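Write out the 3D structure for:
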Amino acid sequence: MSLGIYDLSVPAFQRSLKSLTTILTKGAAHVEAKKLEPAALLTARLYPDMFHLTRQVQMSTSMIKWGCALLAGLERPDDPSTETTFDELKTRVAKTGEYVAGFSPSQLNGSEDKPVKLVFPRVTLEFTGKSFLLEFILPNLYFHTAMAYGILRHNGVEVGKGDFLARG
């Protein structure tokens, strides 16, 4: 039995969304328990030139939506990033989960050799479906999810590896 694009993408997307929900829930509980201003965590970053927590979560969810859409031959979804609270970020994560649930194996499988083009202001990237998933979407998803985890952990939120792996 071979693995299709659906098998390589959707379970990883769902696991990352579960992870984000868990760490955001713990982050919100932390600010409440410590009587902190939520913005202290939402705008925290690991280094001045890196994205803050809110943007890391937004990027994680964008990678998931882009992956599903472009592999299915759809347009990249319009993805405004307007969230400013833990609840808004959790809603974004939940809506991304609903978006992913709308894709069937038949929409994604068979896209291994499909050309995928990403046009950005300074660069255009071209992939096959397989390289797009394995060399762009999944690495970016894991990077931004790990950064969100790291920002919260660095700021004293009691998250652990099980939370990141969506096992805790």
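The mean pLDDT is 96.
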